[in-house]
Amino acid sequence: MSAVSALWNAESIAVIGATERPGALGRKPMDFLLRHGYKGRVLPINPRGGEILGVPAYTSVTEAPGPIDLALIMVGADRVAGAVDDCVAAGVPLAIIASSGFAETGPEGAALQEETVARARAGGLRLIGPNCIGAVSFNNRVLATFSPLFGAESVPFEPGTLGFVSQSGALGFGAASLALQRGLRPGWVVSTGNDADVTALEVLRELAEEPECHGLLGYLEDVPDLETLRALSASGKPVALLKSGRTEAGGRAAASHTGALATDDRVLDAALRQLGIVRVDDIDELLDVAHAFEFPLRPKGPRVAVVTTSGGSGILAADAIEDAGLELSELSEESIAALTEIVPPFGAVQNPVDITATVLSDPSLFDRSLDVLIADDSVDLIIACFCVMAGPDVEKAVTALSKAARKGGKPILVARTGADFLAPDAPAMLRDAQLPDYPTPARALKAASALWQVSRPRPQGTPAATAEPLPAPAADATEPQLKALLAGAGVPVPKGRIARDADDAAALVRELGGEAVFKAVVPGLLHKSEAGGVRVGVGGQEAPAAFRDLAALGGEVLVEELAEDGVEVLVGVRTSPLGNVLTVGLGGIFTELLDDVSHRVAPLAEGDAERMIAELRGAALLHGARGTQALDTGALADLLHRLSDAVSTWPGDFELDLNPVRVLPNGVVVLDAAFTAEGGDQAA
Q1: Does residue 555 contact residue 476 with C-beta atoms inside 8 Å?
Q2: Does residue 14 contact residue 92 with C-beta atoms inside 8 Å?
Q3: Tens digits of residue pLDDT in 552-567
Q4: Would you call 137 helix, strand, or coil by DSSP?
Q5: CA nearest to 673, candidates 658, 655, 662
Q6: 617 with 464: CB under 8 angstroms?
Q7: What is the C-alpha separation between 117 and 130, in angstroms, rounded?
Q8: Where are the alpha helices (DSSP H) in 467-513?
Q9: CA dist 13 → 40, 45, 82, 139, 590 (Å)
């Protein structure tokens, strides 16, 4: 058992700063532990000793009988260091520092926090917090918290299967209260505050080892650690995270291509998607996803069948399927024929299947329709929509849905649009039947999408390296220097070189086939076209004048062969807190205008590059839209892998932009390249 698991398995808890004083925070954990039936030893610590709420108190944790599994420190910030030293001396493995006054207050508090963590680590003590509200296990009735939630007389306190970890204690326990109100059953709620030692992700990783935990939920304020995310993903438990700070990350975006497109927030999105971890936008969505996680059935694919008593609900569900990244299942001919014998003539047998309000007089419609859909191999999960159904009718529908789910092993999510007073017992009935329910089809489909995201097979391992790591370029590397470097990794670049003078430029044009591209190579000149620094289709006679015009911009002149026609994309790589990030998107002058990009965190797994390309809204342009020739997307995927390998050992923070890269019917070619090193200007 790890030290962190004492948050829910502790058999003895010391409350440092315990008091009987009414209203004091130090009284609340004592109240909660005693009231809610904690089975372990409660050890109140107060310099005055005596008794607190009828429990013998001790003047110091070093005087209390051991072993002590968990300490809850509830004293002023100036006394925390002494309490930490006492915990170390008493051999306590884990302490929660509820006290505020640390890094959240400014530099002095940050220094105090750093010192406190150092003292704890030196003594082998792990810390939760500081500035947190504590932790609760509904399963073992561990209440190391002062959250007012547990002072409410009517708070449900039943074992649960969901783990919720939040950096924000108030938000975390507030969300837990909303979960309880919805009928969800959290088993563990932990706040980690400043994450000074044990992080929220580390707690989630430990909870993933609990056999009774069916789903993990987190609220994060800091950029998470990629290795811990990977370990969490590898646990096999479904995970959903609410990460704040989207707009702040966008505000820090650089004005360069890849930097503006691959903001830290987008990178986090990409990393979570790669790892099969769901990212949600608010507490409501987090709880909707949690409801789907509570139950064990998982889809084997993204294909959805909709069965509804309302044509309107069915249409809304069909619209939401595409928005959710799922697919409306194409039912087999056999299924359609069978449904034709079941559904009233004024209903619909094509997906969505509308069994109409006739179900109110003939409840068997649900049973028989569901039997057909569950047996159809083209269906991976079912959304059942019904509106304004009252108690007895809901009971019949729930019975049919539950039987179908058990029979087919496919998840069924319910969109029940109607007031609770129509069927007050419906939520409990649906819960007992292990059927997640939502008030609208769109919310049900978002939850279904999350289920598929955590269930879909993920690439295992990385493909064999396609290129050896390259040496990092100089901070002021020019476009021709970058292209020469990349060519060493097998990256295709146009033939060409720097022209020595006007006559040499004319000779180069003849060598390259009679026409060429001229480019100004000027340090700091990023947008060459806007500055008049690019000439395309320069012939031999125009070459001397073109050379002189571009040389007048203050640099050298690069002469390259013309590339054949194709579609231009951007390919880039930049560093981030999560590692190197690959970006591909519709390139050239449309990069900023269309913002059609996909990201992955390196190293790329097998098939990642192909999926990046497929995610582009403009992918049809590469596959031969409207009768045009299909282009070599395999070569583009190979370029992404080569680039990932080539820059894998480059130190520091950097951005490398290949924009544009032209995708050809056979191959690709990098037409421009720019590099920015940490603290430097962009070289081009």
Answers
A1: no
A2: yes
A3: 999 999 999 999 999 9
A4: strand
A5: 658
A6: no
A7: 10
A8: 479-487, 502-511
A9: 8, 10, 18, 16, 61
* Strand 186-191, strand 162-166: pairing: parallel
Q: What's the pLDDT band for 678 if we cut at 50, 70, 90?
A: confident
Q: Are 299 and 409 in contact (CB under 8 A)?
A: no
Question: One-letter amino acid identity for 37?
Answer: G
- Dihedral of alpha carbons 562, 566, 569, 573, sign: negative
Judged by DSSP in three states, 189 sits in: strand
pLDDT single digits (tens) 608-617: 999 999 999 8
Cβ burial 127-150 (10 Å sphere, 16+ → b, else e): bbbbbbbbbbbbbbbbbbbbbebb
Residue type, 155: V
Distance CA 411, CA 433 (A): 12
CA distances to 78, 101, 187, 458 from 237, in Å = 40, 35, 15, 14
For residues 560 and 519, what is the distance between their CA atoms, to the nearest angstrom?
8
pLDDT score for 256: 35
Query: In 3D, which of 41, 34, 51 has the Cα closest to residue 14?
Result: 41
Q: Which residues of 448-460 are buried (b: 16+ CB within 10 A; e: fewer)?
A: bbbbbbbbeeeee
pLDDT tens across 12-55, in order?
999 999 999 998 999 999 999 999 999 999 999 999 999 999 99
Say which residue the tokens 């915990």 belong to.
87
